[in-house]
Amino acid sequence: MKTLSIIIPMFNMEDYIRHCLDSLVAVSADILNYIEILVINDGSKDGSLRIATTYQNKYPQAIRIIDKENGNYGSCINIGLSEATGKYVKILDSDDSFNTDGLNKIIQNLNSAEITDLVITDYVVTDIINKSKKRINFKLMQNQVLNFDDSKIVKSIHGIQMHAIIYRTNLLKEINYRQTEGISYTDQEWCFYPMVKVQTIRYYAIELYDYLIGREGQTMSPTSMKRMIKHLIIIAEKMLDYFSNINKTTISRMHYLYLEYRVVDRYKDIYRFFLLTLPYGDFSAKGFGKLELNLKTKSKKIYRIVCLTSILRRSCPIPFVLLYKLLGIRL
User: Fold this and answer.
1) Whole domain around residue 131: which residue ranges?
2) Cα separation of 154 and 253, whole Å?
3) Both 60 and 194 in a single domain?
4) Does residue 194 share a domain with residue 231?
5) Both 151 and 256 in a single domain?
6) Pairing state of beta strands 200-213 and 97-98?
7) Which of 90, 141, 271, 304 has the smallest CB count inside 10 Å?
8) What is the three-class DSSP state of 240?
9) Among 195, 213, 231, which residue terminates a domain?
10) Domain final residue pick, 162, 193, 213
């Protein structure tokens, strides 16, 4: 049985997929035997599939390509999960990479440690515009089995991103986890829905994932977010609906608080984009009002928290949401 299945969604990434795959196959030969690399080609029109195929031919024991029609990010994750045979599963975007030494260490640790629902690792954010690197870590006890119901745990991980997450594969299959297909930004679902079933956690302060930002056309760029703002709202509203309808008696208080944190963060990001980033000519008061009404109707508590959101300035915090609501002023 493979230890780790790595799902790589790929769409028109001919300039990046070599580096992505090189970072994986460079591990020691014995470690590579424990890794399953699933490259999901999402209907690429460039040379991505041809490049990935050369790696599959060279490393058939580790790499498998699944070629499909375009269905966007979530469809790649869903197919990858249905094919994954590893004890654990992790997503790696095809414009990102792993720290090879970190991957060696993680596989060694996963092979020797008791299985847990969630494994958390450090990751690095590489900004190609500002030519900077920032390591993201967590205030958690290392290499110990931790319990999700510990309030200190939730406080440390409530803002966790997919780059730090490794799930027990069967946990996802047990809940029949599926990501939304046909739209972008569904990586936030990966950090949300499965967490309800996570009970045991292990943290390794090992740098594994290298997250590249600043690439032209990246979904997190302001230009892409402007074009796909509806996708952001769809994901946020699905998360809000799930949270609003969940039976609190069926989950622990810490799981409930984690979900609440995540929904709040989603809406804070959307509000910031509408009121601080979106150009004046593209702002729709009617569209923003519809978003607000839905949030207020579904959860007055989350609505109040979001409305108190401030620009993060210690010397002069500005509650920009209230400023807009009271005076109609966008900053």
Assistant:
1) 4-213
2) 10
3) yes
4) no
5) no
6) antiparallel
7) 304
8) helix
9) 213
10) 213
**pTM surpassing 0.85?**
yes
Residue type, 102: G
Domain identity same for 267 and 248: yes
Phi first, then psi, for residue 302 (nearest 5°) are -65, -40
What was the pLDDT predicted at 325? 67
Q: What are phi and psi of 216, to 5 degrees?
A: -60, 130
The per-residue pLDDT of the chain, averaged, comes to 92
CB 24 within 8 A of CB 101: no
- C-beta neighbour count of 119 within 10 angstroms: 24
The answer to whether the Cα torsion of 266, 290, 73, 167 is positive or negative is positive
Distances 226 to 65, 103, 230 between C-alpha atoms, Å: 32, 35, 9
CA angle 199, 167, 145 (to 5 degrees): 45
- Supply φ then ψ for residue 179, to 5 degrees: -90, 150
- Do both 90 and 196 map to the same domain? yes
- Split into its structural domains, the chain has a count of 2
Together in a domain, 33 and 182: yes
Within a 10 A sphere around the Cβ of 324, how many other Cβ atoms?
A: 20
Q: What percent of the chain has pLDDT over 70?
A: 92
